[in-house]
Amino acid sequence: MIIKSLVAQSLIIGVLGTAIGWLLLWVTVVMLPATMPFTIDYVRFSEYSVGIIFAALLGGIFSFKTVVKVDPITAIQ
């Protein structure tokens, strides 16, 4: 149960962060003048996005051991 929650939260944070990054990329492309020499390699950006989401999932999974060790009563105080 706890592992599912950790993975879900990590996935949400990874996807949300990546979506914000894509949104900021789009805003940058729209705001720049057409005469400015600026190109985006969307394939590479997509690969990095998948990598970031994967790293977020791994971080959530590796934190499981630490989360299990924490005493809930101590954490509340």
Defining key terms:
single chain, 77 residues, mainly alpha, 81% helix
Fold and architecture overview:
With 77 residues, the protein is mainly alpha-helical. The chain is 81% helix and 0% strand. It has four helices and no strands. The longest helix is centred in the first third of the chain and has 30 residues, at 2-31. It is elongated and about 60 Å long. The model has no long low-confidence stretch (mean pLDDT 89).
Set out the fold topology.
Blueprint: H1 2-31, H2 42-62, H3 64-69, H4 72-76
N-end to C-end Cα span: 23 Å
Helix/strand-derived class?
Answer: mainly alpha
Order of helices and strands: HHHH
Note poorly predicted spans.
none
Concise structural overview:
With 77 residues, this protein is mainly alpha-helical. Helix content is 81%, strand content 0%.
